[in-house]
């Protein structure tokens, strides 16, 4: 008798069939509600969610909205990443409807100096992607270098888009400078984000507009409409600003957000601010309804009167104005390490003449002139403005902030300016946190100070001193 037969005879149990060892119960052991809770909890942790989804086919199907809603194609690490992604979309049609956001990072087109024009992102690849992914809400292009195209306006599409981000735009040659024609793949863009835009030293004229060649073709669709635009002035060049001015979509812009003013130190006499003022006076004067400005800290000796060139009084359609005063964390003249060394006596003074080195600026508190900047802007508002929001980043003790508000803000002038806006329905003075969407609470003393200092708005019941959870 074999050993296993002896064992089975002794225990009185029949031997198990091999197939029974791999049997899977027909009904799931975990309730669907628990599975859904796990999937929802891991929605932003895609590696963990992918591992859980590999457990069963039902989990993979349930998690498909989270796994495939956002796709990033890193082209710098793999030269064929874009072609592989395109092939994957064609071979896997079942996931196309779930992809909502697509990011292309580091896509570099062919040699701009080559004699033969190759297929490019704008002329060929993007046309294929938009055809395969009709449900995409947002596209992002980061650090993409544009090349030339055999047919710059070959694909005038009618795909609406919620958001388009273009970051680190580089035109490789004179022939490639007009790459905002990528917008022509979309009939409507809700929000266009532009940052780090550089055109080099190529000339721009009034015929360089996006729709110059496409509108002349028989049957060409109407030009792309953009409702909102966010523009970062960091690493901006004047050629691109001039190029942006002549784009047809600027005529339909209703909301304009500008950040990083005065960031490009190679621009003289605040040319970026001058450009914004010219846009507001000319291209946007009849359509702009909302303006969102981040006010940079003023250098020593600068006057708030530089904001008079914004020409807001010409924007008769303007209804909402949002101003943000960010906190300053850097040191004006020297970096933090050098300041510490010089304070400790371990470093070599950069000024042999004995001129004292500037101390680090106190974070979160503004100078009297910096508080005059929003007043200079608000004094230009047209009389039909309905909403004004002033968001300030104040840091320090509660007593220090109270003293700062009482001594640095010209409340009488602010109240006088707002009283001249008969259509004003809402005024908000928020204390905000850096890079965070929520507001920090005012103390009761700070709140009462603001209410007391703006009597005309209190009487009109439009004062909105907002906080998260009431006063402290």
From TrEMBL:
Q: Which SUPFAM superfamilies match?
A: F-box domain
Positions of the UniProt region annotated as Disordered? 1-29, 334-358
InterPro entries listed in its UniProt record: F-box-like_dom_sf
Compositionally skewed regions (Basic residues) per UniProt? 9-21
Q: What domain of life is recorded for the organism?
A: Eukaryota
Indicate, by first and last residue, each region the UniProt record lists as having compositional bias (Basic and acidic residues). 334-343
Residues folding into a coiled coil are none
Q: This protein is called what?
A: F-box domain-containing protein
Q: Which organism is it from?
A: Phanerochaete sordida
């Amino acid at each position: 008798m074999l050993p296993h037969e002896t064992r089975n005879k002794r225990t009185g149990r029949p031997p198990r069939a091999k197939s029974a060892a791999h049997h899977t119960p027909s009904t799931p052991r975990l309730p669907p509600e628990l599975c859904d809770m796990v999937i929802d909890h891991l929605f932003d942790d895609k590696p963990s969610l992918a591992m859980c989804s590999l457990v069963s086919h039902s989990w993979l199907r349930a998690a498909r909205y989270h796994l495939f809603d956002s796709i990033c194609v890193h082209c710098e690490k793999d030269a064929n990443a874009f072609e592989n992604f395109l092939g994957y979309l064609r071979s896997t049609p079942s996931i196309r409807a779930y992809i909502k956001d697509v990011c292309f990072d580091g896509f570099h087109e062919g040699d701009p100096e080559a004699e033969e024009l190759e297929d490019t992102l704008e002329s060929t690849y993007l046309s294929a992607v938009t055809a395969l992914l009709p449900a995409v809400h947002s596209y992002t292009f980061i650090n993409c270098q544009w090349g030339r195209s055999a047919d710059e306006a070959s694909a005038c599409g009618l795909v609406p888009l919620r958001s388009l981000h273009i970051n680190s735009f580089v035109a490789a040659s004179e022939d490639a400078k007009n790459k905002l024609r990528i917008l022509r793949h979309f009939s409507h863009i809700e929000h266009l984000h532009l940052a780090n835009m550089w055109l080099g030293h190529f000339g721009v004229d009034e015929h360089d507009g996006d729709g110059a060649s496409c509108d002349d073709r028989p049957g060409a669709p109407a030009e792309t409409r953009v409702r909102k635009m966010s523009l970062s002035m960091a690493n901006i060049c004047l050629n691109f600003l001039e190029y942006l001015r002549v784009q047809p979509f600027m005529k339909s812009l209703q909301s304009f957000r500008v950040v990083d003013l005065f960031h490009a130190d190679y621009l003289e006499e605040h040319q970026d601010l001058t450009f914004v003022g010219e846009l507001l006076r000319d291209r946007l004067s009849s359509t702009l309804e909302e303006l969102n400005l981040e006010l940079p800290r003023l250098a020593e000796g600068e006057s708030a009167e530089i904001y008079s060139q914004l020409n807001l009084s010409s924007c008769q359609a303007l209804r909402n104005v949002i101003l943000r005063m960010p906190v300053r964390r850097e040191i004006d003249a020297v970096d933090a390490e050098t300041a510490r060394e010089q304070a400790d006596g371990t470093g070599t003074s950069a000024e042999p003449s004995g001129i004292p080195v500037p101390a680090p600026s106190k974070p979160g508190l503004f100078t009297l002139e910096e508080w005059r900047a929003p007043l200079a802007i608000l004094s230009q508002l047209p009389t039909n403005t309905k909403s004004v929001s002033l968001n300030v980043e104040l840091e320090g003790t509660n007593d220090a902030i109270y003293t700062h508000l009482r001594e640095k803000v010209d409340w009488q002038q602010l109240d006088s300016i707002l009283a001249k806006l008969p259509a004003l329905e809402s005024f908000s003075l928020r204390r905000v946190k850096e890079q965070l969407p929520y507001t920090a609470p005012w103390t009761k003393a700070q709140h009462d100070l603001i209410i007391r200092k703006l009597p005309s708005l209190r009487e009109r019941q439009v004062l909105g001193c907002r906080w998260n959870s009431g006063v402290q």
